[in-house]
Specification:
Blueprint (H helix, E strand, L loop, with lengths): L1 H12 L3 E2 L4 E2 L6 E6 L4 E8 L7 H10 L6 E8 L14 H6 L32 E7 L6 H14 L4 E5 L7 H5 L7 E2 L2 E2 L2 E3 L2 E5 L14 H13 L8 E5 L6 H9 L4 E6 L3 H16 L4 E12 L6 E2 L6 H9 L3 E7 L1 H8 L4 H4 L4 H18 L11
Parallel strand pairs: 4-5, 6-12, 6-13, 7-11, 7-12, 13-14, 14-16
Antiparallel strand pairs: 1-2, 3-4, 8-9, 10-11, 14-15
């Protein structure tokens, strides 16, 4: 039974072509380590190079799902540059591809010097149809960056703007859950059609990979994904294009500013000194690459007692304001700690939709007004690029 299933899976995969290499994904050795179980579960590795179209992940998963007897599919996407992959050599003939043994990944830092050679940074491309491109960033995880990004996007849309939201947090793509949408995006005329929720157009890597699949990718693959989300998605004409970044300062942030002209960054922090200290480093990263910081958002600023209406600053106080003062930018908002924000995000109903009259929702709606005001001004405050 297992052998027959594996043959059917292999046959289905042989029909998916890599036009760049002029071969199917098996001949090109993009597919490795196909494993099946007697109850129909299939797991395989897909090696993707920076020159490959990321939609092949969806094509592979869909093809295997349609195979008779398959009950579950897991596609582990891996960086082709970390193995002796066909992306850097001519494809094998079909018989050789089927019998090719699995290869172990090299130990990081032990690859030949030629493979470690630096790649020149690409020239940023302007995408005027995307409107104002804004990076939503944080110095560390857990401060509510994705919560702020999703609610801000919806608030802007509620105020009449055309808004796109790109989830660039490839290590933890939470936007699909928070926005209540999660399905493979359709493709029409070689353009990916973004999904929509609450008047916002959305694209996320979470739509294309398994929920539990870790993204163990290096810079070139991250650059490829971000560039494709900018270039190959049919966003239409937008006023605001928000990009939910991963926490910290790494490949995704650098890839975004190398791929396009970012109009500004919003830094999300919490009141604690350790959070604002990390956020400072994130802001300085944007400063170094000549992206103005529009302002700081302090999330979980205080808790409003439902009995006495007093504010209790349970996570400390003043971290957001001190960070804004040090950067010489405005504190754009103080978002109160409210349990409805957490539960709404978990069920795909952000607070500005689920409970728009709460203090937290009102603070996020006011944040949208301030952001629009900043970007409509020619002299919007921001961090001057360091020499």
């Amino acid at each position: 039974m297992t052998a027959n299933l594996q043959e059917r899976v292999t046959d289905a995969l042989s029909r998916i072509r890599n036009n760049r290499l002029g071969a199917n994904v098996l001949e090109a050795e993009m597919i490795r380590d196909i494993a099946t179980t007697t109850d129909g579960k299939v797991r395989l590795s897909l090696f993707l190079s920076p020159d490959d179209n990321a939609t092949v992940v969806r094509e592979v998963r869909h093809a295997v799902q349609q195979v008779e007897g398959v009950t579950d599919v897991r596609v582990d996407v891996k960086d082709a540059s970390q193995s002796n992959s066909p992306s850097t050599r001519p494809p094998l003939s079909p018989p050789a591809a089927k019998s090719a043994p699995s290869r172990a990944l090299p130990v990081m830092g032990q690859e030949p010097t030629s493979k470690r050679a630096g790649v020149p940074a690409p020239t940023p491309v302007a995408y005027p149809h995307l409107g104002n491109i804004i990076a939503i960033s944080s110095g560390k995880g857990g401060v509510g960056k994705s919560t702020v990004a999703s609610n801000l996007a919806i608030a802007l849309a509620q105020q009449g703007a055309r808004v796109g939201l790109m989830d660039a947090d490839i290590y933890g793509p939470n936007i699909p859950r928070m926005m209540g949408v999660n399905a493979p995006p359709p493709v029409e005329n070689e353009k990916i059609i973004p999904l929509q929720a609450y008047g916002v157009k959305i694209m996320s890597l979470g739509f294309m990979i398994e929920r539990d699949q870790p993204a163990i990718w290096r810079g070139p693959i991250i650059m490829k994904i971000i560039t494709q989300f900018l270039r190959d998605v049919r966003w239409g004409e937008l006023d605001y294009f928000l990009v939910d970044m991963p926490p910290g300062t790494g490949d995704a942030q650098l890839s975004l500013v190398q791929a396009t002209m970012v109009h500004g960054a919003i830094i999300v922090t919490t009141p604690q000194e350790v959070a604002s200290g990390d956020a400072l480093r994130g802001a300085k990263m944007f400063q170094r690459v000549a992206v103005p910081v529009l302002g700081v958002v302090e999330n979980m600023s205080f808790f409003i007692c439902p009995h006495c209406n007093n504010k209790h600053r349970i996570f400390g106080s003043g971290g957001g304001q001190r960070l804004a003062d040090e950067l010489d930018v405005p504190l754009l908002g103080e978002i109160p700690f409210f349990a409805g924000v957490l539960s709404g995000g978990d069920r795909g109903e952000p607070i500005v939709v689920g409970e728009p009259n709460t203090p937290a929702a009102q603070a996020l709606l006011e944040l949208a007004v301030r952001v629009r005001g900043l970007l409509s001004s020619r002299d919007a405050p921001g961090v001057t690029a360091a020499p």
